[in-house]
Amino acid sequence: GAVVSQHPSRVICKSGTSVKIECRSLDFQATTMFWYRQFPKQSLMLMATSNEGSKATYEQGVEKDKFLINHASLTLSTLTVTSAHPEDSSFYICSASEISTAGGNEKLFFGSGTQLSVL
Amino acid sequence: GQNIDQPTEMTATEGAIVQINCTYQTSGFNGLFWYQQHAGEAPTFLSYNVLDGLEEKGRFSSFLSRSKGYSYLLLKELQMKDSASYLCAVRDLSEAAGNKLTFGGGTRVLVKP
Q: What is the pLDDT of residues B41-65, one digit of tens each?
């Protein structure tokens, strides 16, 4: 099955620093990738939709200048948390789907997630 | 927008059956997914329903009623390893081209011996 690789799996950083998270589709091309955030014992909240070659689409309430998304190729999307603060500590997960035609039962394949802890 | 509701927690005994309900409201339904997620791990795909009825896959089955905006995930012959969160997710027709899913809050299932 399709594999999505995400790293790092865990990062601890000081407040004010920036953190970059990578998401790669290993054996398929993903024109669209999604970035989710998950707080403890809560579900996935979509942050943004990453489109290859164009600007990302952010969900309401998500600061685009704080969460920078770059989707430079069909297999790589990055999320950069700029000037991270303790409230940004969360589990960040990317996902991608192998889409040939829209609207079918294309499964979302998830990366393994990144646990960010900001001190 | 979409509104997806599922119970927060459920407890069941090993070997038993548990049914996790999910209700949703969407302007244009185009598919419902169930995912399993163990703590600290990524969600894994369990099932997909777009037409009314029951989809069976081994010990797991998923049912959909579009007219009622209702789905359930049925877990049979529960095993200890089934202790996890189960996420209901809905795809809206207007967002089908991007395969964007909206997730419910998740149901934590605890299987006891």
A: 888 989 999 999 999 989 999 999 9
